[in-house]
Design a protein that fits this description.
With 433 residues, this protein is mostly beta strands. Helices cover 14% and strands 39% of the residues. It is elongated, with a radius of gyration of 26 Å.
Length: 433
């Protein structure tokens, strides 16, 4: 499991992380039988990943001999152990492939670059994404659009914010429904970013990922709005508007999880009418373990027909209600404990980056559909209230990048933030950034 983080460091810390297979495989076919055996494929793949090795390894033995420069040989040996696991997967993929097929794939990839210092994104570090518009807290995905290779959870798999307005001429009523969360990152020191300031002097130094260690921090402002406002006011009206600050720390390594996120969030809550006055503090924990498809995925989709991952967020929420407003809460203190779990399904996932030889099942539907099942369970310990809220949503990404989508959802249960029961269907046009 821990090799995932090791691979992440290697990719972040060298600009040749995505150096593609542009070297012709012909000269590596030393016995001229028209295919690369495992040893030949290993040397070819090592040269692709390390242009410096490709330049100096003239005898094609996969390493630098003393005569090929002692300093370069020592550098290669230090880095080989770190990278060998990721190389092994590529060796299994490319071995026994026909040279023509390998070169066909290689011709579509950008040329490898000589290893150099990692450069900030075009336009500088200020160009990193700071504004996130999503459905709820689970959809911010640790305030990161992507990571190395394809990212834990790209935007196309998130649920967007939505707003709808209805006017009825017969009973002269209006209704506005909003479900969304807007977040802005104030400060972020993310090891998955080329602007990370905590890089070690030795980028190939071995790390013990069995020992937990700090893996970046994030501070973000957010506003979360969920609910409906009616005119004239109805008894079923419910809404919650929260504004707060997320202070988040990532922990890498340990016996069970590759990453763990610990989030502290002080907030103030009101309603769409601005009547409620509530103050609270939430402490949350979100684990990431790609081998269990928990928190997101790294690597190839589960199958060519369906990809999936699940999320878990355990949290404690302490709040004080001074003014009830458009909620069913009562004045006083609340102490909640519970968790949120979500299963995310993506039919017809994109597999091209992992298997360029494969033909897509339905090319026009790749990454367009999604489905979510979400379960919220919390218990209030002082008043002994159980709040179970679950929902199902099926959506279609209108744009290929998933910025806009249309969805149909069903929600049933008790919302802990308002203590108002829900049982509703919603068709929504969603937007996410």
């Amino acid at each position: 499991m821990k090799h995932i983080i090791s691979t992440a460091f290697a990719i972040v810390l060298t600009s040749s992380s995505l150096a593609a297979e542009t070297l012709s495989a012909a000269k590596y076919d030393r016995n001229k039988d028209g295919v690369l055996d495992e040893r030949e494929a290993l040397v070819w793949r090592l040269h692709v990943q390390d242009p410096m090795l490709a330049k100096y390894d003239v005898n094609l033995n996969g390493k630098l001999d003393p005569s090929e420069a002692e300093t370069l040989r020592l550098e290669n040996e230090a880095s080989f152990g770190t990278r060998s696991r990721s190389v092994a997967n590529d060796v299994l993929f490319f071995k026994d492939r026909k040279i023509a097929d390998i070169d066909k794939v290689a011709s579509t990839r950008p040329p490898p670059a000589v290893p150099a210092d990692v450069k900030p994104p075009k336009g500088g570090c200020e160009e990193q994404q700071r504004l996130f518009i999503r459905r709820d807290r689970l959809d911010t995905y640790q305030y990161r659009e992507g990571t190395f290779v394809t990212g834990f959870v790209p935007r196309s798999k998130a649920k967007g914010a939505s707003a709808s307005f209805a006017h009825d001429d017969l009973d002269r009523s209006q209704s506005l429904t909003v479900n969304g969360r807007v977040s802005y990152v104030l400060s972020q020191n993310d090891p998955m970013s080329p602007c990370f300031t905590g890089l070690p002097d030795d980028t190939y130094a071995k790390r013990d990922f069995n020992v937990p260690s700090l893996f970046g921090t994030t501070v973000a402002l957010w506003t979360d709005a969920q609910g409906t406002i009616n005119a004239p006011r109805s008894k079923s009206e419910k809404s919650a508007v929260k504004t707060g600050l997320d202070v988040q720390a990532a922990i890498a390594g340990g016996p069970l999880f590759d990453l763990q996120y610990v989030i502290a969030s002080p907030y103030a809550q009101t309603d769409f009418r601005g009547e409620a006055r509530i103050y609270g503090f939430t402490a949350a924990w979100e684990p990431f373990a790609p081998n269990a498809r928990l928190g997101g995925t790294i690597g190839a989709p589960a199958t060519k027909y369906l990809d999936w991952f699940w999320q878990l967020r355990a949290e404690a929420d302490i709040k004080r209600v001074d003014v009830v407003g458009a909620t069913a809460l009562t004045r006083g203190d609340y102490t909640w404990g519970g968790a949120v779990a979500r299963l995310h399904l993506t039919p017809f996932p994109d597999r091209s980056i992992y298997d360029p030889f494969a033909e897509p099942v339905f090319a026009d539907l790749i990454g367009r559909f999604y489905a979510d099942v979400t379960v919220n369970y919390h218990r209030e310990f002082n008043r002994r209230i159980d709040a179970l809220l679950w929902g199902v949503e099926v959506g279609f990404n209108i744009t290929p990048d998933g910025a806009a989508s249309v969805s149909v959802s069903y929600t049933d249960g008790l919302d802990k933030d308002t203590l108002i029961k829900q049982r509703q269907y919603l068709v929504a046009l969603n937007y996410k950034l």
